[in-house]
Every structure is written in C-alpha cells, then in structure tokens.
Design a protein that fits this description.
heterodimer, A: mainly alpha, 8 helices, B: 10 residues, little secondary structure, endoplasmic reticulum (chain A), membrane (chain A)
Chain lengths: 212, 10
Amino acid sequence: MNIFRLTGDLSHLAAIIILLLKIWKSRSCAGISGKSQILFAIVFTARYLDLLTSFISVYNTSMKVIYIGCAYATVYLIYAKFRATYDGNHDSFRVEFLVVPVGGLAVLINHTFSPLEILWTFSIYLESVAILPQLFMISKTGEAETITTHYLFCLGMYRTLYLFNWVWRFYFEGFFDMIAIVAGLVQTVLYCDFFYLYVTKVLKGKKLSLPA
Amino acid sequence: QDLEEQHDEL
C-alpha cells in the first residue's frame, strides 16, 4: 500500500458516497445516468468475485463490500425509490456498444484464460468506459449540477492516482499489470476534458454548462 | 508470477 493507492481508494469512496448523498438528500436522481451506475455495479460484481476465493486483507475485503453495497444501493435509488425523477430520455447511450466489445476483448486479451480471470479483465475494461453514458448525458443536456461535477472529479481522480500508484509499484516493487495500466490510462484520458471544465469553471464558482 | 494471479488492488 502506498499513498497514491490509498488516496485513490479514498477518492473513489468519496465519489460513491457523494453520489449516494446527493440522491438521498435531494430525493432526486436528476442528471445522473442510471446506465453508468448499472455498469459500475456490474464492474464491482465481476471484479470482486474473488471475495469468495481469496483473502488479501481486512482493508481490501471491507472496501470491496462497501463498493459493491453502495453501487447496488445507488442503482436501487435511481431505478426504484426515486424512479420518478430519473431522466431516462436523456440517458440514451447505447450500453451494448460498450459491453459487447469489452466482453470480446476480455476473452481475447487476458492474463489467464479462466472464468474468474476473464471476469476480472472484463471488469477492468468495462470500468474504463463505464462513465461514458454519464458524460454523454451531460453533453446532451449541456449542464451538470455542481454536486454531480464533484462526484465526477473524485471518480476521475481515483484512476489518475492509481496511475501514480502503478509508477510507484513498478519502481519499488517491480510490479506491473499491463491490462490495468492500459485500461487505467484510457479511463483517465476520458476525464481530461471534464477536468479542464472542472478547474476552469466549477472551482471558480460557476455552474458547469456547455456552450450550445 | 503465479498462473492464478491474485489481484490485490481495488
């Protein structure tokens, strides 16, 4: 464990909790892509199946359980409890265009051709693009609530910090995982445009709105 | 590395 990984995990946790609280406090999931949240729930489920097969640490196990629990709670809030506020018309990204190629890629390029390993690889690839429905929704409506941008910023920071973690682990432990690194790079690049808007607008107290 | 890798990251 190094500082980048720990802050990355905490940033990830902060993102998840910010989103849950935003929906819970405002009793509304307006502006949130339910599709992205379903994809994240699939990502955690596919990746953390190793909860059943291997134990790494109390920290590792508890974070996995919290991530999975929060992901399903978020999906429940969007599609059941506050369904009336869900903006389905603007959440029109075709997720099959992500899930199908990503599934194929996981079968073709993985570390070991075994069910658990393929599911892990699938989750890594899927996570890298799971935010696209959310970004698509924002580009479609042209705006995002400030709290939603804080969520996206924490989520983007998480994988960015993991990139530093991988550099660290390569130098000090000789460890590198090409699949995680390439997917992590893709994931981080997808946030670059958003990071720019976050710094130039949201941090200066303006609402994030895109030019028409 | 082990054939059946252990993924220790989240």
